[in-house]
Design goal:
Layout (H helix, E strand, L loop, with lengths): L3 E5 L3 H13 L3 E4 L6 H8 L3 E4 L8 H11 L4 E5 L4 H9 L4 E4 L4 H16 L11 E3 L2 E4 L4 E4 L2 E4 L2 H12 L5 E2 H8 L8 H17 L6 E4 L3 E4 L7
Parallel strand pairs: 1-2, 1-3, 3-4, 4-5
Antiparallel strand pairs: 6-7, 7-8, 8-9, 10-12, 11-12
């Protein structure tokens, strides 16, 4: 079955060249024409993978990445002239799977498309079902960085999702600050004690906004513990 690639790129020439290239390798390409109807285009073509620029009219690529991730687990590959490290971090934290800087070789883009499609739905795919984690009334969707309580949802950054996942995985048990720092530093992005405090505060705030009490307990001298019984309000 022919797989569909959605191209969200406002450089018409580049979008056309990308479309021609992937079509040559037996993919079906759809190019967004109206940037006020990105989600409508996404829902109508149901792509297997998205190629997404950062600099777009109306809203940037990070915004559209979050909107798409709320609807689908399909791979999202950023293609951008912005080479700054923080842009790449933001892309990944907003739900992207890869980041390709311009100028690029089309062969590299094709290889990354094929690699991400294999992981998502082909020979490397583990499951077609979305992974979830539950603790009491708390539900986490770690693959799209969304937390839910009693039908109300909040978006998380990648680091916030990692943090909450670690606490939920060991619910009612203490997770040391050192364990959390090691986990959140695993991608090479430096995380210090102060930054960890910031992430803990952000996650607590988002859970509180969903109507929960203080689920994350501070255990002095040891670390943190998730207490699902502290959520009702």
């Amino acid at each position: 079955m022919q797989q569909t690639i959605l191209i969200i790129e406002d450089d018409r020439k580049l979008a056309g060249l990308l479309s021609e290239y992937v079509t040559k390798y037996d993919f079906h390409a759809v190019v967004v024409e109206d940037f006020s109807r990105v989600i409508e285009t996404f829902e109508s073509c149901k792509p297997d993978l998205v190629l997404l620029d950062v600099n777009l009219p109306k809203f940037d690529g990070f915004y559209w990445c979050r909107q798409i991730r709320n609807l689908s687990l399909c791979p999202i590959l950023f293609i951008s002239a912005r080479e700054h490290e923080m842009d790449q971090v933001m892309a990944l934290e907003n739900g992207a799977d890869d980041y390709i800087t311009k100028p690029f070789h089309y062969e590299v883009v094709l290889a990354k498309i094929r690699s991400n499609l294999r992981r998502a739905s082909g020979s490397y795919a583990k499951s077609l079902e979305e992974r979830t984690m539950d603790a009491g009334k708390l539900r986490l969707y770690p693959e799209r960085y969304v937390v839910q309580i009693a039908g109300r949802t909040a978006e998380l950054s990648q680091k916030e999702s990692l943090l909450l996942e670690a606490l939920m995985d060991r619910q009612s048990r203490v997770v040391s600050r050192e364990q959390l720092l090691d986990l959140m530093w695993s991608d090479g992005q430096f995380i210090d004690d102060n930054t960890l405090n910031v992430y803990i505060t952000r996650v607590r705030k988002k859970l509180k906004e969903l109507g929960a009490g203080d689920l994350i307990e501070t255990v002095r001298g040891a670390g943190y513990r998730l207490n699902p019984g502290g959520e009702a309000r």
